[in-house]
Every structure is written in structure tokens, then in C-alpha cells.
Amino acid sequence: MLASFHPSTTTADAASVRSLPDGAKVLRRTSVREPLHRLSLFRVLSAPSGRDLTDAASAVVVEGWKLASTGLARADGGEHVEGTRIAPEGNTVVRYLTPSRWAAAQSSPGRWPGSQLARLGDVAVPVDLVYTWVDGADPEWLARKDRALHGVGAGQLNETAVSDSRFASRDELRYSLRSVEMYASWVRNVYIVTDRQVPAWLDTSNPRVRVVDHREIFTDPTRLPVFNSHAIESQLHHIDGLSDRYLYMNDDIFFGRPTSPELFFEGDGLTRFFLSTAVLDLDPPGPRDLPVLSAAKQNRELVERTFGRTITQKFKHTPHPQSRAVLDEMEERFPEIFEAASASRFRHPEDHSIASALHHYYAYATARAVPGDVSYVYQDIARPEAVLTFNRLRRLRDVDVFCLNDTDGAVGSPKERSMVDLLDELFPLPSRFERTA
């Protein structure tokens, strides 16, 4: 919105605190005359705990644009028309408004012609968000898992494939959704993919959220139940009504500051991916590898066979931008990969990680994805430095997204409690995805 606001010498109050001999403190105000170019307007909000929720990112900034005099030079070598309004700071939208453009803006109302149009680089299509979620303490789910384990031969599973930490829930999803509402409100709809489970606190009457059962999306429901994220990820693009561009997230990922869809997608529809500095070793997939590593090596072998090129880097544990069109094409081209993944009840050395890795490699190799850059923190909450990371996140709040992953060493530990305290402090207000009572 444009408004007439002229910079001028303005009287402002400054405050200082003076201590008295008896220990009392006196607030003293003085008047200061200085040029006023910007006003930051915000509402002061506090959480139930008393924590101040007001920060610079939530302010509305009103700028005072300077009026140009005759003959004032422009940065491009020309001269400004007298009466042109010039922005006090650089931006990527408009640096000055001539008198005619200002008049047009005032008549339309408070906006310049064309301002309602998306810019060429803006994402102008809907973007949905897909979570996978499990309540590992649910007795019925545990019974299904135990029955499935009885059918698995000795030595066929890596112990991490069935570790408690892989299925533990600490209400991370609740806090992750709060972070979405705070910092990614551009998301259209949220889909939560589960195995016959619904979070008790979730407001399922909210039209922007839908719980999707595994039976709705698996091409062959007789493969169910599965307890393997690689299997579930291979079927997410089958969700009815899902936007073509969407984010896939685990519930241990949180938005840390205001974001835009352009962080994850190009305006022309390309998806972005976020490479890690972690690299794959040169050995083939083997029983000594953790399932996540063997899946990455399986991806590498497929890329080498298909495109005659290799890969060396892993991906960051962030939201994963996805394209349904790309995944549909992949499933048609490699049906055996998707069938094998969907039939793998527990993580297995022959799995491919389709949504969280193979999609990105394939899309990049076919000119439908580009490398992106995201400000990011990953923390295994069982590590010794976890509390230091929690304090950094609490103090700085300078990352786009962060992941608080867990291992067996963290289940029931003091660090687990510290993590929940951190999330409650960062995201204290219930979202509209939660029941009110």
C-alpha cells in the first residue's frame, strides 16, 4: 500500500533509566529532534507464559520517500522529474515513483497499476504440504507392527529399521503445524498421511487439513500395513486433490522464520533441492550400511544406469519440494522401483528413497529442478551439543527451517524434555489446526 509520508525533522522521545540511592529506578524521558525516514508499526503480543512474541519480522514498515528537486540525477544516468518520490532504501520492486505514477497509484486506491499481478519469478500456483505421521505408542498400531515382524526372517532387518525412536511421537506435529501457520501461511492445504490414526488434538473439521489413510494411496493395498517411510513416500503423489507442486515434510521439521514459496520452487514450476555437504562412500549398498545410506546408494546406481552420470552428495533434512508430474513419470518409467518400495514393510538395504532423494536427482537430470539455498539447522537431540543448539535457536531465530531428529539415546532423556520446552517457547500459540477444547 502506498501513502503520502514526507520525511521531516521530528520530535521523538528517548528514554533512559537512572538509579536512586535506595535502589529504586526512575525512567527519564528526553526529547530528541532527528530526521524520521521509517516507522515500524507492530502489535505487542505475549504468549501465555509471558514471553514476548513481538519481533522485527512481524512489523509493518512505513517509509518516508524523498521528493526530488529539479535536476536530481538518477542512478541510470538520467534526471528525476521534479516531484518524483524516491525510496530511502534499495528494494527489488520500485526505486522511485514519478508524479504521474504517484497520481495513478492514488486513484487505484493506494496501489500502482499492475501491482496486483504476480511478478515473473513468483510462484503463482497452489502449494500443498504433506506430512507422514505415526503414533508409536498406539496399542493397535503396535499390534499390527508386532504381527508384521513375526513374518520377517532373522537377519533380514537392520535394528535401526524398528527402533523406538523411529516411531516415537512427542507432539512434534502439533508444533510443526504451528510453525506453518506462523511462517508458511502461503501453504494451501495440509495432508497428514497415517496408518488408521488421527492426532487427538487435531481439528479435523478445518477444511485446510485432511488425514489420509495409507489405504487411500497405496496402489496395492494388500501390501499394507507397512512401517517403512521409504514405502509410504513412494505413494504420496497418489493423494486425491493434492496440488501438482507440494512440500513433503517429516514432523520433526519446523519453519523458523517467515518464508515464501519461492524458497522451494521457481516461478516457472521448477522444484528446488538442497544438497548437503555429506557425501556417499564409494562402496556398493551392503548389510553394514544403515538403511538410509543403502537407499542413497541404490539411488546412485539407478542414476548411473539411467543417465550415465553419478552422484556424490546427500540432501539436507528439510522440506522436500515435489512435482506430481515428475513422480508420475518416474512411476511409469520405473514401475519395478515403486512396486518394490511399496512392498517393503520395514526399511531394507534394497530400498530406494524416492520422495526425499530420487525425485530431486531425476528432476535435475531432466531439467525440472535446480539447486536451492536454505538457511538450516539439523540437530540430533541425543548428541552432547543438543542443548547448545536449542539455546541458539531460542536466541537467534535466524534460520528458515530446522530439524530436531532423534535416536534411541534420546527417548525419555532430559534432552527430550528440553526439546519440548524449546518448541513450546518458540511456538506457544495454538494453531487453527488444533481443537479449541
TrEMBL record:
Residue ranges annotated for the Stealth protein CR2 conserved region domain, each copy included: 166-271
Family: Belongs to the stealth family.
Name of the protein in question: Stealth family protein
GO annotation terms (biological process): polysaccharide biosynthetic process
PANTHER family xref list: N-ACETYLGLUCOSAMINE-1-PHOSPHOTRANSFERASE SUBUNITS ALPHA_BETA, PTHR24045
Keywords of the record: Exopolysaccharide synthesis, Transferase
Domain named Stealth protein CR4 conserved region: residues: 392-436
UniProt cross-references to InterPro entries, sorted A to Z: Stealth (IPR047141), Stealth_CR1 (IPR031358), Stealth_CR2 (IPR021520), Stealth_CR3 (IPR031357), Stealth_CR4 (IPR031356)
Pfam families in the cross-refs: Stealth_CR1, Stealth_CR2, Stealth_CR3, Stealth_CR4
Residue ranges annotated for the Stealth protein CR1 conserved region domain, each copy included: 126-151
Lineage: Bacteria, Bacillati, Actinomycetota, Actinomycetes, Micrococcales
Domain Stealth protein CR3 conserved region residue range list: 316-364
Gene Ontology molecular function: any one: transferase activity, transferring phosphorus-containing groups
